């Protein structure tokens, strides 16, 4: 099954560019401040890997079997990691040893490939949903997924939670979410940023689907 997974060339090229720029950044400017981007890009690749396997699997098996359900849950939890990398653009200009223009290309290429991997993964899952549900239902389901994805980005960027914290630190995560919706001082940030992320990802996804159809 793994041999059947095909990642588009445009993603492979951008992925290689992001990795090479990070390596150059580390060795040329002698700083390890961007090592975390290797991890972030790897996390962004996980939902695409999962959705690719599920797309192959559902063409042969029923999508309601336990293996698909487990795969969908994991995909749903890791999906925010892809568009999350876009928020790393906030680090441009923070390094005192790396030229700003270099970091502009480095962070932009990393954010672009991570976002594209997330959009492609979502598109693969949409194809899976359409095997079972009507277009009308899927058109409702996709925005709901993106709302939770956007909220996940908020949790990751501002409260520093990770996808696996649901299993390893679920108590802290659930308490944090409870505080968000019970303490008024969080309302403005959580709603405004979640709405901002949602609008950006949803419009990006619409544009992405339009582009790949041509």
Summarize the structure in words:
The chain is mostly helical. 74% of the residues lie in helices and 0% in strands. It starts with 8 loop residues before the first helix and ends with a helix. It is globular. It is built from nine helices and no strands. The chain has one domain (2-213). 29% of the residues are buried.
Overall strand count: 0
What's the shape? globular
Integer average pLDDT: 92
> What portion of residues belong to β-strands?
under 5%
- As a percent range, the share of helical residues equals over 70%
Structural class: mainly alpha
Determine the N-to-C terminus distance: 28 Å
Profile the largest sheet: none
- Number of contiguous helices: 9
Order of secondary-structure elements: HHHHHHHHH
Low-confidence parts, pLDDT < 50 over ≥5 residues? none
Rg over alpha carbons: 18 Å
Q: What oligomeric state do these chains adopt?
A: single chain
How many domains would you count in the coordinates? 1
């Amino acid at each position: 099954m793994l041999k059947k997974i095909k990642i588009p060339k445009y993603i492979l090229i951008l992925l290689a560019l992001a990795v090479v720029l990070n390596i150059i950044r580390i060795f040329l400017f002698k700083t390890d401040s961007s090592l975390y981007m290797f991890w972030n890009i790897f996390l962004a690749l996980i939902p695409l890997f999962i959705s690719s396997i599920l797309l192959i699997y559902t063409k042969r098996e029923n999508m309601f079997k336990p293996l698909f359900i487990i795969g969908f849950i994991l995909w749903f939890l890791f999906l925010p990691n892809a568009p999350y990398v876009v928020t790393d653009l906030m680090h441009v200009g923070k390094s005192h040893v790396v030229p700003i223009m270099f970091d502009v290309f480095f962070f932009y290429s990393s954010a672009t490939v991570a976002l594209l991997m997330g959009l492609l993964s979502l598109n693969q899952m949409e194809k899976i949903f359409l095997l079972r549900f009507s277009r009308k239902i899927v058109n409702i389901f996709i925005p709901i997924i993106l709302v939770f994805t956007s909220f996940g980005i908020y949790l990751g960027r501002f409260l520093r939670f990770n996808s696996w914290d649901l299993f390893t630190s679920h108590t802290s995560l659930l308490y944090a979410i409870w505080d968000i919706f019970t303490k008024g001082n969080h309302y403005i940030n959580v709603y405004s940023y979640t709405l901002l992320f949602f609008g950006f990802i949803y419009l990006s996804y619409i544009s992405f689907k339009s582009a790949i159809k041509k």
